[in-house]
Amino acid sequence: xxxLLIRNVRIVDAVGDDCIASxxxxxxxxxxxIACIGLMQDLDATIHAAAKxxxxxxxxxxxxxxxxxxxxxxxxxxxREFDLRLRGASYEExxxxxxxxxSTVKLTREAxxxxxxxxxARRLKELMRHGVTTVEIKSGYGLSLDHELKCLRVARLLGxxxxxxxxxxxxxxxxxxxxxxxxxxxYIDEVVQRIIPEAKRQxxxxxxxxxxxxxxxxxxxxxxxxxxxxxxxxxxxxxxEQLSNQHGAALVAEYGGLSADHLEHLDEAGIAAMAKAGxxxxxxxxAFYFLxxxxxxxxxxxxxxxxxxxxxxxxxxxxxPCTHLPLMMNMACTLFRMTPAEALLGVTRHAAKALxxxxxxxxxxxxxxxxxxxxxxxxxxxxxxxxxxxPLAGRFHHGLEHAx
Length: 404
Ligand code: NIG
Ligand code: FE
What we know:
Pathway: Amino-acid degradation; L-histidine degradation into L-glutamate; N-formimidoyl-L-glutamate from L-histidine: step 3/3. It is an enzyme of class 3 (hydrolase). By secondary structure, the protein is of the alpha/beta class. It folds into two domains: 2-62 and 364-402, Urease, subunit C, domain 1 (Roll); 65-355, Metal-dependent hydrolases (TIM Barrel), CATH 3.20.20.140. It contains 15 helices and 17 strands. It has helices spanning 79-86, 91-96, 101-110, 113-129, 145-161, 184-201, 219-232, 248-254, 268-277, 285-290, 299-304, 325-334, 340-346, 349-354, 382-385; strands at residues 2-15, 18-21, 25-30, 33-39, 50-55, 60-63, 65-67, 132-138, 165-173, 207-210, 237-240, 259-262, 280-283, 309-311, 372-375, 392-397, 400-401. The strands form three sheets. Strands 1, 2, 3, 4, 5, 6, 15, 16 and 17 form a nine-stranded mixed beta sheet that branches. The chain has a four-stranded parallel beta sheet with strand order 7-8-9-10. A four-stranded parallel beta sheet has the order 11-12-13-14. Helix 6 (184-201) links the parallel strand 9 and strand 10 (207-210). The protein starts with a strand and ends with a strand. Bound molecules: N-(iminomethyl)-L-glutamic acid and fe (iii) ion. Residues 69, 71, 239, 314, 316 line the site of fe (iii) ion.
């Protein structure tokens, strides 16, 4: 017997390079997973008896959204720097003057675990309200062994307390902390010798990330981080080519990385390397918008090389204070000229792959988790079309529906 039967929905699926809604259909759930899918006309009450019945009323059914790149756990905000930038300072200038990531590090270090949990939970609930059922959360505002682990513990706890799946990424190589000022290599020693092995030992990290940039870490330093990740048996991803071309995409591809993220300054060699390695390109239009960037990521080349593109909020206080993934879909279309279908695949199928979860998440298929969203819209393109508001009508995590 099924635990849940969702009836009278139009299931959205990729067909060619488009996303199409099916004829009225049903979907059955057993043990949190999708057990059967069929057309309403074939629904047989005796075969498909279910403990719970949910009428979808003709709404669209998509996989639950996956936000595959966030810095959700932090304290404070950076509204003051927003103001400074509007008076002419650049993101890099603020970072070099000790602001930027470091100002959030100071507040995050001062916050205890409970305060950090409460601040992050608020943002998490907003993500959930917009259809997110799986979220990746990076550390990177602790920048010491204790504070990085604290942030990862908070991320894990969020996943235990809320009906959402959390995947954690250790981003200790996000910035050089003040106590290592001018000694980036010594800080990388600390990251590779202590922080990565300890995060692994405590089971707190599912992946390792770094910020490869002139104001972050060099390709050589990034390589050391990746070697340590590999030694710990953890997959890698990278903040690459955001502000300049450091050839980070090719580097992360060389390590078989899950994803390269941002990518405004990506070149064709990097794209070819990603295509070969199966590394996902994660598009972060919120940061592009917020920094008023003008260099567009090479979407057309990525398409031509058939690199899967994901779309994410990059939720963080400095460059993308955003918890609205459908808005990022809209921006991926308006700013990057992705199609609505690409944007939808970017927050479902390809976002799952960016987290290494493609076998169990990201599409509506028998055997996969019943992580699903019901939408009060007529056609799939509407999901990327609206700038504000939310047509979300239902959200299921592992087959259980939770209030929005
Ligand atoms: O993804 N690029 C580096 N990291 C973040 C920004 C962090 C911050 O400014 O606090 C990003 O854009
Ligand atoms: Fe980021």
